[in-house]
Every structure is written in C-alpha cells, then in structure tokens.
Design goal:
It is a single chain. The chain is mainly alpha-helical. The chain has one domain. It has seven helices and no strands. The longest helix has 21 residues.
Length: 180
C-alpha cells in the first residue's frame, strides 16, 4: 500500500479507537489525536529514508524497507507502551492516547502491508515476512527511487495488485467518514 491508503487507514483506526473509548479530552485534543493518528498510519515507512540513504551511498543492506525493525509489530508495541507509560508518569490522558493511537495506526499499516508485501510479524524471533496472498512481488524496493520509477510502479504494477483496490476502498471510506 502507498501513502494515501496508509494515511486513510490511520485516520479510520484512530477514529475507531476514539469512538470505542470516548476519552475525556477537549475537542481540540481529539482533533490533534486524529491528525497524529492519520500521520502515524504511515509512520512505519520512515524506514524508506534509511533505505534511500543507504542506496545513495551504495551501501544497501536490505532488499526491502520492510526488512528493517521499524516495520515490525514489536517495535511499535514497545514504542507505544513507552509513550503510554509516560502518560501515566506525567498524569496526561492525552499522552496515553497518543501512545494508543501510535499502536493502532502503525499496526493498521502493518496489516495493510501484510496483504501482499509481507511483514515480519515474529521478529526478532524470525525474519520471515508473512503476507495473506502469498504474492511474490515485493514492491519497488531496490529501484532507483526516482519520480519516473514511482510513476511506472503506480501506473503499470500497483494497479494489478489487490492492495491497490483495498487502498482505494479505505481512502474512499475515510473521505466519506470525514465528510459526514
């Protein structure tokens, strides 16, 4: 999945969490949490920066950005628990919810990536990537990372994947919910 779907998924996951828990926060704080959750929906892809840096230096160590620890559930579980813990230490309900939203949105990202690309759900015990459709295509990693390369990927490759259609549906659902 690419940026729009991950952002939409983060927004919907955050909205679902807030709707289920009804936090005692101000309207402004809820709006801030929706922004944090939307952005956190793409947070696991922060590893693309490292991949790009390594590629430019000619020292690429992995075949896919999904092989970095930032694309593992345990990393986001521990990170979010630290934030939630800080919320308890400082008595901040908002901080606790930021931690919960980071967990919810990043795991939504990882679930979407598990459709066809695969995620290392058992890391650090195993580096095997699990995907639902057992697809052999592993995305655009290892390419030149230019605009034309991404354009080629989106227009010729991505539209053939089930993930593309899931992303379209999730994005439409997020826009529909946002417009209500």
């Amino acid at each position: 999945m690419v940026l729009p779907g991950h952002l939409a998924g983060g927004y919907l996951a955050t909205l679902a969490l807030l709707s289920l828990t009804h936090p005692a926060l101000s309207h402004g704080q809820i709006e801030a949490l929706l922004i944090v959750g939307t952005l956190a929906g793409d947070l696991p892809d922060i590893d693309l920066l490292r991949l790009s840096y390594e590629e430019k230096r000619g020292k690429l160590k992995v075949e896919s950005h999904r092989n970095y620890f930032t694309h593992t559930p345990i990393f986001w579980l521990i990170s979010s628990l630290i934030v939630v813990g800080l919320g308890y230490v400082f008595g901040s309900e908002l901080t606790k919810y930021i931690g919960l939203i980071i967990l919810t949105s990043t795991w939504c990202h990882l679930i979407f990536d598990s459709i066809e690309d695969g995620v290392m759900w058992l890391w650090p015990f195993s580096e095997k990537r699990f995907d639902m459709l057992n697809h052999t295509y592993q995305g655009i990693d290892g390419g030149p990372h230019t605009f034309s390369y991404y354009w080629h990927f989106i227009t010729r490759e991505y539209t053939k994947l089930y993930t593309c259609y899931v992303e379209i549906l999730v994005t439409i659902a997020a826009i529909w919910v946002l417009m209500k």
